[in-house]
Design goal:
The complex is a heterodimer.
Chain A (H helix, E strand, L loop, with lengths): L2 H17 L8 E6 L6 H17 L2 E6 L6 H14 L3 E4 L8 H9 L3 E5 L10 E4 L3 H14 L5 E7 L5 H12 L7 E8 L4 H14 L3 E6 L2 H13 L7 E4 L3 H10 L4 E4 L2 H17 L9 E3 L5 E3 L5 E3 L4 E4 L3 H4 L4
Parallel strand pairs in A: 1-2, 1-3, 3-4, 4-5, 5-13, 6-7, 6-8, 8-9
Antiparallel strand pairs in A: 10-14, 11-12
Helix pairs in contact in A: 1-3, 2-10, 3-4, 5-6, 7-8, 8-9
Chain B lengths: L6 H20 L6 H26 L7 H18 L5 H25 L4 H20 L11 H5 L4 E2 L2 E2 H19 L1 H11 L1 H6 L4 H27 L10 H11 L11 H17 L7 H22 L9 H6 L1
Antiparallel strand pairs in B: 1-2
Helix pairs in contact in B: 1-12, 1-13, 2-7, 2-10, 2-11, 2-12, 3-4, 3-5, 3-10, 4-5, 4-10, 7-8, 8-10, 11-12
The chains are: A alpha/beta, B mainly alpha.
Amino acid sequence: MSVLKKLAASAAMAATMIAAPAFAQDDVRIALVVKALGIGFFEAANEGAQEAAKELGNVEIIYTGPTDTTAEGQIEVINALIAQQVDAIAISANDTDALVPALQRAMQRGITVISWDSGVAPDGRQMHLNPSSNALIGNMIIKLAADHLPDGGEVALLSATTTSTNQNIWMEEMNKVMGDYPGIDVVATVYGDDLADKSYREATGLMQSYPDLDAIIAPTSVGIVAAAQAVVDAGKVGQVNVTGLGLPSEMAGAIESGASQSFAIWNPIDLGYSATMLAYELSQNGAVAEPGAEIPMGRMGNLTLDENNEGAMADPFVYDASNIDQFKSIF
Amino acid sequence: MTRFIPARETILGGAILVLLLLISSRFAGFVAPSNLANVFNDTAPLIILALGQMVVILTRCIDLSVAANLALTGMAVAMINVAMPGLPIPVIIAIAVLLGAVMGAINGVLVWKLAIPPIVVTLGTMTIFRGIIFLISDGKWVNSHEMSPAFTDFPRIVLLGLPVLSWAAIITIILFGIMMARTQFGRSIFAVGGNPHAAVYTGIDVGKTQFWAFVVSGALAGLTGYLWVSRFAVAYVDIAGGFELEVVAACVIGGISIAGGIGSVGGAVLGAIFLGVVKNALPVVNISPFWQLAISGSAILIAVAFNARAGRNKGRIILKEAEATQ
């Protein structure tokens, strides 16, 4: 670590320490620890946490994190937070295992510890909040296509590689719920290997092989962008809807051109909101993180924990022309 | 007659025709002229890079950094475009070619002055270039809505029925045809690869020729970098990952000897087109994706095997009588 970074980190730490006594002591202090400061995704999560704090009334959010995405940096931050005796820590971890000792120390001192987004090993936290679950994603990708096809139609899948675990699980989950979408016919599954050129070619091939194709579902960020470009170049905007999972910053052009009506990914604002709500419930309202427990998280409903004390927040969030401008600069 | 139609190219051309017939029996629309134009357009980057690679391979070197060079140049021009959307496209292209040539020159200097084996040099620079993309971009993507419309539209502009991307390949083919057959540089490339010792005696600087071969390959990779990024309207660290192997494969299929000295512009172009046809046909002929890799690999092997057979019996017996008396 360079001297400059060390200085910056200690300055930031000192600042939080000095700032701490300024809070009214009866306020609940929840620390939202992120992978690194200055990342749009986490800034948005902080926005959600502030929203939750406002809703709860007596909560102060301490939004903090290291200056670069290292576990060491996060350990320093955690130690500072322990010294400040915060009420709860909600962390998106840079390392699954390295943070466990520091977080255990925090828990021994009565601090509620949860992880969100990127998890910590079960020993180092009371519970973990996943943005979504495989079943919810599988359902969402077919729902995105079906919502724009009220009379049914032909859809095709453009995946990453034949061996990508995530995509294969999502497509499997999608097949389980196909019965809920009568009239929607999955005509082909092709693989773009997460390469822009191969995905583009496969998408072009799909449009040639299935002239009546209505939608291409690409549950991969490279594939969905390449497919959207292929649809634009083939002059099939309006006929073939490209949808799936992508990031707003990468898909803004496709939404603008009309090649994609909508797509989905987790919403960082909701994630920060839910993490704050959960931390509050555990630390103040006596909710216990145990397998099978249902913990409320405000407007996001309830979170049900599985045998590893993990839970899935919600369906992936849908982005379309109405909200893309708000999110494209965030992540 | 054989002087004007080299056997190698004829066989490869025939193989492409047979391939097209086979494909059309499964998917008739593939051989429609408009689709063939699309296939050519899609293959244009591969053709341009294969020609650059051909020059390098002819001088007994190999350039494995072309795809990384392409990606780095592509990212650089995309970021320049985002920073200065008003910069005219010809300037962008000049920057791309120059940047690519500089990276090629780095390879060339290392091979020429330090005499490091080219495969080692370019394996190293390949990783370095990819690393630099990560450094300059922070791992972030440059997306279509951030690029200016002029930037992304340029390769799609249609002139005389073909998009600019296709014309870029055609112009490169013509220039290379002239360069290899009619210029001193073209002939010295063959001389260096065919017999480096003899080349030295004729006054050709072997290292310098190899250096310029890398510069040419790098400049073309730079040009392709812009074309690639603007065509797919996205730039990120991994673009064209593994593409260097396709480029080398196109050369090998086209009958360019890895040992240097043997090869032709026509061969490299046909080799690239062969691969392009296979790549574009696989998605539409309805073959399981699990088989596709094996099929394209077999196609390459078969093409190379044909070439090896066609290239045999090159040796000329000059002392027939002496041989007979033994």
